[in-house]
């Protein structure tokens, strides 16, 4: 258990020490403030308050789960797997007193950590940004916190599936391009072929969809499948 904890701490430490990750986190924290400024400016010009203070966290959450967090998770997964393979640092990690399954799990825990941090920072920033919009600032605070907390699970599943995909590519650029195209296809295909939405994991990343037991069960199934196949790939791959 100690070796697993050390592996988790090591992954988080490596993630934090990368300057680009700190910059991305800063951008995520500033995004609600920029959104509030843009909305406030537009509403003052139009003379109509379409978005009030209590609505901002939910608007921000929709942007987070659709664009920001998937990008965060993709960059983190590429750095933790494909990037370390290219830099030849993965071999050094495998020399540590930790088994491959534990090391793989530690990297998945990192994705969960990143999801939680981004969601928490964005929620706090959204509340602060709400001060600059009309309406009661404190209305719906607990409800918005619950929505952000609920979003953690589908984002974790998305991260696990991303880990499975990026392990099949030898370069970070290829992994990034393929994952972006795949994500866009899975998001856009149900608009053309609605029946596909039932089987697409991205159809269940919306927080409101988790109210149904079947949606939650689908995410659990995709998570188990992605984790086991991803671990099998990681354990059997020559790094």
TrEMBL record:
PANTHER family: INTEGRAL MEMBRANE PROTEIN-RELATED, MEMBRANE PROTEIN. Pfam families: ABC2_membrane_4 (PF12730). It comes from Aureibacillus halotolerans. Coiled coil: none annotated. The chain crosses the membrane at residues 58-81, 108-133, 145-166, 173-193, 213-235. The keyword Transmembrane applies. This is ABC-2 type transport system permease protein. Keywords: Membrane, Transmembrane, Transmembrane helix.
